Amino acid sequence: MSTITQQMRHQAEPLWQASFNHPFIKELVTGKLPMTEFRYYLKQDRFYLQNFATLHGKIAEQLTDPAIKQFLYAGATGLDDSEKEVRIEFFQQLAITPAEIKQTQIAPNAYNYVSHMYHELYVGSPRRACAALLPCYWLYNDLGKQLISNGSPVKLYQEFIETYNSPEFTEATNTMIAIVDQLGKDADPDEKAAMITAFVRSSYFELHFWEMAYEEQKW
Ligand SMILES: Cc1ncc(CO)c(N)n1
Question: Name one GO molecular function term (predicted).
Fold first, then answer.
């Protein structure tokens, strides 16, 4: 019997492959990705990561397992510190000011992705919400591992790739995979199916996050 996370990964495979092959990712590696698009990505991702952290705390409140609660509360303070630090540095280097952030309109896909995660928690369950969070860790960790062998000639893009290949990020990813497997074990069949759907939908929004930045999506 395969684990629930193996089933999730299997069902989301075409979406993951499309992410790996997306021009945003390809051009990140060649260095051809226009900085305006990376800048756009960072501003939208700031909104995403803020809500992602908030979600960790809200999910933790609804769960009872002490080890799971502890991991999620740590995530609520802003993912792993290396990602947070790198982002602060990027914002400084690209002169993205608080005023610019304030003026940034949240784009449709970023809004939809975040809304989906809240929906999984408040209309679904904390288990489904954990499943919805998992592609965020796992897809980026897979990308980090894949892209690191080539790296990028652009320093900023190289640093971005390195963040997701770090031992800390890999450890957080593995913990999150173990948490979802644990939560899946005592879920009934309908709940299991709903967890898988939540994961696949997040994988869809991950793919479209690249597309959103690549085309500078607007309402
Ligand atoms: C949209 C998105 N997914 C995953 C990550 C990884 O933390 C991120 N920064 N942004």
Answer: thiaminase activity
Domain that holds residue 97: 36-214
Choose the residue to mutate in 206, 207, 208 for probing ligand 1, maximizing ligand atoms within 8 Å of C-beta: 206
Distance 32 CA to ligand 1 centre (A): 21
pLDDT 10s digits, 152-168:
999 999 999 999 999 99
Cα 107 from Cα 91, distance rounded (Å): 19
Express each pLDDT in 14-55 by its tens digit: 999 999 999 999 999 999 999 999 999 999 999 999 899 999
Residue 81 located in a structural domain: yes
User: For position 42, which CATH number holds?
Assistant: 1.20.910.10
**Which ligand 1 atom is at minimum distance from the Cα of 136?**
4
With respect to residue 1, please indicate whether it lies within any of the assigned structural domains.
no
Q: Distance (Å, rounded) from C-alpha 73 to C-alpha 179?
A: 14
Distance 2 CA to ligand 1 centre (A): 26
Question: Quick check: ipTM above 0.85?
Answer: yes
Q: Model pTM greater than 0.80?
A: yes
Q: Is residue 17 part of a domain?
A: no
Which residue's CA is the nearest one to ligand 1's atom 4?
A: 136
Nearest CA to ligand 1 atom 2: 136
Pocket of ligand 1 (CB under 6 A): 45, 48-49, 79, 83, 136, 140, 206, 209
181 CB-near residues (< 8 Å, 6+ apart): 3, 4, 5
**113 φ/ψ angles, rounded to the nearest 5 degrees:** -65, -50
Note whether residue 176 is domain-resident. Answer: yes
